Amino acid sequence: MSIDKTSANLGKTPEEPQDAPVVNPEAAAAAVTAVDPRLLVREQGLLGYWSEFKRKMKAGELGSLPVVLGLAIICIIFQVLNSEFLSAQNISNITVTMVGTGMISVGIVFVLLLGEIDLSVGSVSGAASALAAVLTVNQGWPEWLAVLVAIAAGAAIGALHGFFFAVLGAPAFAVTLAGLLFWLGFMLKVLGEDGTINLDSEGLIGQLTTYTFTDVAAAYGLAVVVVALFFLSSFLGNRRREAAGVPSRPLGDTLLRTGLLAVVSFAAAYMYNQYKGLPLATVIFLAFLVATDFVLRRTTYGRKVFALGGSVEASRRRVSA
User: Where are the domains of the chain?
Assistant: First the structure.
């Protein structure tokens, strides 16, 4: 919460002490505390969110609304074309298929928050995957070791790109475009003339996408854990904000948000149980999503990412001050 002291200091000269009488009492009386409007929205609850939503719509700040509407339209069209599109089997298969792309998307969010771009993520992920497959199938390495090597290779490639960008000063667009082409060629070279390698569907890598928790309690239990953790995190966060004297969400707002999450979570659990059960890939993706969200919102590193994305020069001056 910030306080505007401009009006309170109106009419004072630098030589005057801070407790000198105010020359313009009318202006001083009209001075108000400046509060971040986002905090007021949080304090006003649902009414505040509705007012903020209308303000953003009038200002053209659509946010994620076009994406949500687009997905809804796509689902309606495909359901009309094929009545099985929204079936439990198809939705379960879609959620498993999107995990790989989703993991890459979560990582690229960090780059976008910095105000940069990375064109090489597809080629880097392909190169790391090809390396894991070759080590497992052709070289006979244990799958868990091959996976660790692939992760380390991806991290090393990212560090190499970061060196060219952060140390040598090359533009991120040029560095990652070159990486896209180079690592794509590297992947094709590693895979060999055939261009494909068949993994064991019963092995560790295969089980990451094919294993499901068939017990109905697994999906419903995960839903209970997600809802409970969300409520506790929101409730305790509001308590800390109240103790610090800053605006916080009303309890009714927290309960409503928790209830909406519970509806979505248990509906998803019911849908999974109508097919084979809860996919392991979905659990891994959710855990990764929650972990990265925590890093961005609750750690010093995450705050630095947001700060650098807002203004590199301001962040540099803040550190050097």
Answer: 117-209
